[in-house]
Amino acid sequence: MSNFLKNHFELLGLAPRFAIDQTVLDQSYRTIQAEVHPDRFAAGSSTERMQSMQWATQANEAYRTLKNPTARARYLLQLQGVDTEEENNTAMPTEFLMLQMEWREQMADASHDQDISTLDALLQEMRGKAAELQAGLQIALDQEQAWQTAAEIVRKLSFIDKIRHDVEHEITRLED
Amino acid sequence: MAYSDKVLDHYENPRNVGSMDKNDPTVGTGMVGAPACGDVMKLQIKVNESGIIEDAKFKTYGCGSAIASSSLVTEWIKGKSLDQVMEIKNSDIAEELALPPVKIHCSVLAEDAIRAAVADLKAKQGIRDEQVA
Q: Is B106 considered catalytic here?
């Protein structure tokens, strides 16, 4: 199947850019999903069943990657041969790391006090910061091809995604 | 994940947790972070007139291994010169704490924190660098 040679953007009919049309992404994904659904190949040969399964897996992976802004940027950089070094680059700007510490402290205090409204406010602040960084990513990737700048923003977003997830988890836990 | 006894010991009784005045000219502050896991580590060192680290403090948000790595490092660096602490390798930390391969990055973070704190102190002290080092 030639689809295995396509990258995620090609597979889902999108130009390889950070700014994407979510509607097109969703529609393409649904179309592919319907085409390759394993049920359609239930009566096919074992090779066909295997291929449809692999194709469906690839489509899922492509959709998941492109839907998430941080993953989409990381993937675009990967296509450019740029490693985001999220495993080994620990030299983040000090102000950014200070902010991470402050957020962690505020989160710990609010969790301790079971203060959901403070956690909600914190989450809003993080979403705002993430949106700001995503706007920067769009410029770095789509306009300036500034790959290293984009890689640094991905590292920052990686932090924010993690703490947002932790705060959301904490809110859910307290609400239960 | 099963933590080693040493990791648990440092995690449950972390040594030298706290902060020092980052504007003090004898204090060097190293802030590092690991994007992949969201860990943040602040390590501060205070040197005396002979250039020996007489106090160290840390504050870390992260997993048990990251906390243990920073706690261990504060113990190791006290009483040493800046040159001596620059020789500490992440593999020494990982070995001491028996960190599994997936947690090696926590020891890397601690090594990088030492380097960042030393660099900050040297930058602050400027010319005195030669005498201190």
A: yes
Last-in-domain residue among A17, A49, A67: A67
Give the domain range for residue A17: 8-67
Q: Is this complex scored with an ipTM above 0.85?
A: no
Given this model, what pLDDT does residue B128 score?
53
| Confidence grade of residue A108 (pLDDT, cut at 50, 70, 90) | very high
Q: Is residue A104 domain-shared with residue A152, that is, in the same domain?
A: yes
**Domain containing A145 — which CATH number?**
1.20.1280.20
Q: Give the whole-angstrom CA distance, residue B89 versus residue B80.
A: 15
Other C-beta atoms within 10 Å of B70: how many? 32
DSSP B18: S
| Residue of B17, B43, B61 to mutate, testing the A interface (most A Cβ within 10 Å of its Cβ) | B61
Confidence grade of residue B133 (pLDDT, cut at 50, 70, 90):
very low
Q: In this structure, what DSSP letter does residue A145 have? A: -
